[in-house]
Design goal:
The two termini are 25 Å apart. The strands form six sheets. This protein has an eight-stranded antiparallel β-sheet with strand order 7-8-9-10-17-14-13-12. A six-stranded mixed β-sheet has the order 6-5-4-11-16-15, with no helix packed on it. It is built from 15 helices and 27 strands. 33% of the residues lie in helices and 24% in strands. Helix 7 (382-400) crosses helix 9 (410-423), helix 7 (382-400) crosses helix 10 and helix 9 (410-423) packs antiparallel against helix 10. It is an alpha+beta fold.
Length: 619
């Protein structure tokens, strides 16, 4: 990868079990995606002399030579005058295989070759601190125990006196369940102290390689409408010990599948959008998967719950699901359905009193109702969320060539479509997904979302055999689109941020569905005029979100890039985004909100919305 990745993924399973590193992995400790330290030390001993390759302690360092990141593996090479050490961190979260998307086991394969032509005695040791089982070091006491697993050496660590799922929040770590450190075959395991922290360790001979495994059993994964529910991987009664043994035994075959999966993604992305586009998707994939939790409710329904990372910690947020959807439309619509099911369920409760769709279903990992509360009308996003839910339901049905998911939820989709028909032509003063910019009246892009929501519901009606209603709704959508083109037009051929703000502009990302579905509600001149304006407004690292500020959003940049008729215009925008990540001084998992003039992060990190970068693969 030519990009200087903003943060290096090491262990990427779910919102709690997620460990990253900065540019040089042996100069500082790894961190949780939040930036809170998750201290791990990795050392390699060569002929009795010890060198550090991961983390920070008093040992000498073996020099880091290269970092390569693909969709499922991070490969880091180190070398000194005796050996070359390769560390391959792999988490096989295949979106198209639900069990592996859920199983909380991640790999580190260490191997070496001699660089001086001599034979060497080499061993490696991994030490993991209590920070993996506490919110922060010192907040409680950790303890360890040896775990008996056939063919595997294993030690576990957990907080004493823990309470499962006892709190929710954004910038917090898990402090319930147990962490497991294992090695395939024989190894020494135990506990120790470093940096005044309790830790567990595993040490194995490299002959010339060794396979380390990291696992986490959270016991229960989510509170779902007052009931604790478990992760998908547990649905048939599998234990964490069985999962670790299974993972150890299938590493070679799984790694081959991971390499094939990653290469296929890179090739398809490169063909659609170029080398830089392929690199961004390769970096985004694990982040998107690891910002969700795949669980099963007590009725057997699959739930794929997002955490709105470093925003407010909301769970199952509709306007986070919406931009992330392209990756799951491409790989597996069941995961997208799993994002939407909690919203449909909540909207049917007595607590939800509105005739529009909710914004969220709780604060991760507790899904008992909206964070803002049903009475916080000023914080709702009525047109936004109605449009999102209908567009996604239609997109699923199109992708699957199956109307059943929409049919199951037709009562709500119909109600929400009526809301769009009533208020969508010229939305009143309300929030949209770009809520950090504040309320806005007469929002042109929001109007486009309403139009595309109506269009999606017309498709659903047609597939249900209600053709007369579908035709009437499409006619209304076309009427609204024509109204938009008349009232939103600027003199230069672009279109406004708001109907009453002449000369302004905004990224019209919601129009991407018109292009993708081939519905032709908006004329060719609309897309041409917008693209000319985007190129005119472009700053060194992106096109601003709209006239009001110089910040932009990565997901929306890639959506509007798909409005381009020419590939060179698509690559013009993707190159700006790639350059932002390559130069960004804030070294965190991919932010989606940054300043287009400086590439400095404005806010957010590790959010699922990077699934939106995959949208070009749908064309």
């Amino acid at each position: 990868m030519k990009m200087r990745v903003p943060s290096i993924p090491l262990i990427t399973v779910d919102p709690y079990f997620s460990i990253w590193s900065h540019d040089c992995v042996n100069r500082r400790f790894p961190t949780h995606w939040t930036g809170s330290r998750n201290a791990i030390i990795g050392t390699v001993t060569v002929d009795g002399e010890t060198y550090r390759f991961l983390g920070k302690n008093g040992d000498k360092v073996i020099e880091q030579k290269s970092v390569a990141v693909d969709a499922l593996t991070t490969t880091i090479v180190f070398a000194n005058d005796k050996i070359e050490l390769t560390a391959a961190f792999t988490t096989p979260t295949f979106a198209d295989q639900l069990y592996y998307a859920s199983r909380p086991v991640s790999y580190l394969k260490l191997s070496y070759t001699s660089t001086d032509g001599q034979e060497h005695t080499v061993s490696a040791k991994i030490s993991c601190s209590e920070e993996l089982v506490l919110n922060k070091a010192g907040e409680g006491r950790a303890f360890s125990k040896d775990i008996c697993i056939d063919g595997v050496s294993c030690v576990s660590m957990a907080k004493g006196g823990q309470k499962v799922l006892w709190r929710s929040g954004d910038d917090v770590r898990i402090d319930w369940g147990s962490f497991y450190l294992a090695v395939k075959g024989n190894a020494e395991t135990g506990n120790e102290v470093f940096e005044d922290m309790y830790a567990v360790y595993a040490e194995a001979v490299l002959a010339p390689e060794a396979l380390f495994l990291f696992a986490y059993d959270d016991i229960d994964s989510l509170i779902y409408f007052e009931a604790p529910i478990k992760a998908y991987w547990k649905k048939d009664g599998k234990t964490i010990e069985e999962a670790i043994a299974e993972a150890a035994g299938e590493y070679d075959s799984l790694k081959e599948k991971c390499d094939s999966f990653s290469a296929k993604l890179y090739k398809e992305a490169e063909e659609k959008g170029g080398e830089k586009y392929a690199e961004m998707l390769s970096l985004a994939y694990r982040q998107v998967m690891a910002a969700h939790k795949l669980a099963v409710d007590n009725e057997g329904n699959n739930l794929f719950v997002s955490k709105e990372c470093f925003s407010n910690g909301c769970a199952a947020t509709v306007d986070v699901t919406y931009p992330s959807a392209p990756m799951f439309l491409y790989y597996n619509t069941e995961l997208l359905k799993g994002m939407m099911r909690p919203v449909f369920k909540y909207a049917r409760t007595n607590e939800w009193i509105f005739d529009f769709a909710p914004h969220d279903v709780g604060q991760y990992p507790i899904l008992n109702g909206q964070v803002y509360g049903a009475n916080a009308l000023h914080m709702q996003m009525p047109v936004e969320e109605c449009g999102n839910m209908i567009i996604l339901a239609a997109a699923i049905c199109k992708q699957d060539d199956d109307i059943s998911f929409a049919k199951e939820n037709l009562d709500l989709l119909e109600k929400w479509n009526e809301y769009l028909v009533k208020y969508g032509e010229d939305p009143e003063n309300q929030l949209c997904t770009d809520d950090f910019a504040g309320h806005l009246s007469h929002n042109c892009n929001l109007s486009i979302k309403a139009i595309m929501g109506m269009t999606g519901f017309a498709f659903i009606l047609e597939k249900l055999g209600r053709k007369e209603e579908a035709d009437a709704l499409m006619a209304k959508a076309k009427e609204y689109a024509d109204s938009f083109c008349r009232r939103a037009a600027n003199a230069d051929g672009s279109y406004r941020l708001a109907y009453d703000r002449e000369g302004t502009f905004s990224l019209k990302y919601n129009a991407v569905w018109d292009k993708l579905w081939g519905t032709n509600l908006f004329p060719k001149e609309f897309y041409q005029g917008e693209m000319v304006r985007y190129k005119k407004e472009a700053l060194p690292y992106g096109v601003p979100l709209d006239t009001r500020e110089k910040y932009t959003k990565s997901d929306w940049l890639l959506w509007v890039a798909c409005l381009a008729e020419e590939r060179e215009d698509f690559e013009f925008i993707t190159d700006l985004l790639w350059k932002a990540y390559d130069t960004m001084r804030t070294r965190v998992p991919m932010t989606d909100w940054y300043f287009a003039d400086t590439s400095e992060m404005r806010g957010f990190r590790h959010r699922t919305v990077q699934g939106g970068l995959f949208i070009k693969l749908l064309f």
